[in-house]
Amino acid sequence: MCSSDLKREVSASYTVEASFVMAVAFFFIAALLNGVFEVHGRITGRFVLQEAMEWCLYREEKTLRGDGMTVGEISSRAGQRLHGFFRCGDAVLTIREDGGDLDGRVKSSTETEISLRGQEPERAIRLLTVLENAE
Questions:
Q1: Tens of pLDDT, residues 111-128
Q2: Distance between CA 132 and CA 64 in Å, rounded?
């Protein structure tokens, strides 16, 4: 075996090792990107759900004037808006009203629940009266 054949064997082994390293590197990058997209979908769902619940909570003034939407309409529109975001096409957004309280849920690869209390002006006035009397 001459020295040129030895050099070819050594350089070929470097090529094989480099191909394994690149495969592992690409797998790692793909896993990292998948995690980033997962976080993006979860946070986007939370933001859309929170906005829709705020719309539901403060819709009473418009409903009294006759130009407001129901909770179902707001939930449907928010779900359609959520489907327009990248990797959120399979997400399901639901909002349920129980008295003055709202319970919302977004379910895709993860599930997020948010609960909001409705406006209670009588309770706020009672608490203010208690605080004023305590001073």
A1: 999 998 877 778 778 888
A2: 32
Residue 63 amino acid letter: T
Q: Please, which residues bridge with residue 101 across strands?
A: 98
Distance (Å, whole) CA 66 – CA 57 = 16
Task: Work out whether strand 92-98 and strand 111-116 pair parallel, antiparallel, or are unpaired.
Answer: unpaired
Please spell the DSSP secondary structure of the chain, one letter per residue. --HHHHHHHHHHHHHHHHHHHHHHHHHHHHHHHHHHHHHHHHHHHHHHHHHHHHHHHT-HHHHHHT----HHHHHHHHHHHHHTSTT-TT-EEEEEEETTEEEEEEESSSEEEEEEPPP-HHHHHHHHHHHHHH-
pTM of the model: 0.69
Q: For residue 112, list its beta bridge partners.
A: 106
CA-to-CA distance for 75 and 55, rounded, in angstroms?
10
The amino acid at residue 30 is A
Contact assessment for residue 72 and residue 59, using Cβ atoms and an 8 Å cutoff: no
d(C-alpha 95, C-alpha 23), whole Å: 44
